[in-house]
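Hello support,

Our group uses your service weekly, and this is the first time we've seen a run hang past the timeout. The protein is Amine oxidase domain-containing protein. I'm not sure whether the cause is the sequence or the server load. Input pasted verbatim:
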Amino acid sequence: MKVVTDPAAFYATVAVSVVLLVAGGYYLRRGRTSRRRPPVEVEVSLTDDELVKQGFATKKVPDDVDVIVIGSGMGGLSVAAVLAKEGKRVLVLEQHDVVGGNTHTFEEGGYEFDTGFHYVGGHLDDKSYPNRKLFDYISNNSVEFQRLGDTVDVAVAQAADGARDAVHFTADHDVFKKYLKTRFPDDHASIDAYFKAVKAASIGLGTYFGLQVCPTWLRGAYRWWNKSKLEYFHKTVLEVVSSLTTNAELVGILNYSWGDFGDPPSRAAFVLNAVILNHYRGGAYYAIGGPSVIAKKVARVIESHGGKVLVRAPVSQVLIDASGAAYGVRVKDKDILARTIISTVGAPQTYTKLIPQDHQHRVERQVRELQNPALQACCSLMSLFVGFKGDAQALDLPTHNVWKYPSWSHDANFKANQDSPDAPFCALFMSFSSAKDPTYATRFPGKQVGLVVAPCFYPHVEKFKDGRVKRRGDDYEALKAVWKERMLTEFLNEFPKVTRESIEVAEFGTALSNDYYLGTTRGAIYGLGHTPARFTSDVTNPRTPIANLYLSGQDVLSCGILGAAYGGLVTAAVIEPSLLPKLGKLLSKTKQ
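Update from on-call engineer: The timeout came from a worker crash unrelated to the input. Re-ran successfully.
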């Protein structure tokens, strides 16, 4: 999911200002817990590719590190860049062999594939809008974006009569609303009510943003005071949409985006549905040069301010003293010290894996709360990366994404797929990064890449989790082969001009691949479940019970590239309260 809509951003500024006024005295009494050097920018001689592939060695660690960030996804890179620009010496440690998390790309057989950045919204072609301002700030204005046309998504399902039913979700909401009213003439009032609820929920996002900045002691009062604004965080998508109409087909169409956050309509909080729709009002965008450009440019900002970004640096534990304060991390049996530690690997991994056993009592409540099934991810994803010869225009490869479902009954589809690995895929996502990135044809002439993603349920692969990567046994390989062929067949059926003979690369990975390459927990690519329980829980609080240890990334706000990036911004402001005015400016649209 990709969050922070423009109305929400305005109200987020208001919410943050309120928190600043109420909590300012607290921070002043508390005193500054961190130091700040005068920001000095230096030239970094490494190339972009060298910058994001620097292997860990203790001699590469800067002297007198202020902040250690565990993980180099957008939640890690954004918080690191913001703090580096505030004069902190930041060390980013990544367990994989390349920086970027879901913005990283990989090459196979002469093709470049993206992994987790498929589209993002928020008027990124206009530098006055918050999302563009955020990217510009953390990258020093070095990333540009391509608008992907007037259609954002096409959702396809089998209608009740067996016919193919394709719905175009357009960048222009007036066009989409007109389509819905033409198709469902008896539901005009319901459609208007839905868009009204979308607007209200998006405004509530700003209030939640304020909650995450709010001091721990004030969170309960803040929730109580703003309970009406947080209404749509506490209701499911199905609950809200079904209260507006009894037309099952309309309900299914309005609920199509559940794959963007990984929870079916009966489980997901309505705010997710709302911000997805609002986020793409105006269009979707793709990073020019591919998503790895973002990681490369942000890493350069961090290093140009005296920091370091290192890979193949798996953190095994956070170092905690007798008083319960974090003072460093352990990497490959080497201890690295810092005044502030930020974990972006998710709340479950942080609290259950990185806190030493003799300090587990300090996070007992968080660990216990994380056992709640409503907080856990209910599915993962598996991915098929397809490289094939041809011309994008001749093959009719779209810049929009395609979603395919067995029917518009998403919860029934989900349940059937969850119960059996042989059931129809409850959702399929198809995308062509080679058609989206205007530089791809120049960089890889005559080559195209497609991505097919489907939900993957961890219990279906859990028995293979202890095997070594690429050596998990014949049964696992057989299961993968079946899924891979099914997904490839769906892909070829949807895009008939792409022939099986033209395919030169077809790489496939499951939830276990996510755990190995991305460091996820049980393949949970989206982090914690995006349920009402998540948004009423304090386990997402960026402050932890361990002094000097903070959370950042997807679990702080929401999943997705921008959800993680804004999570980083929140954590930076929590650590350095003087950032709050700057946060307000980034979250508001600049007047022209």
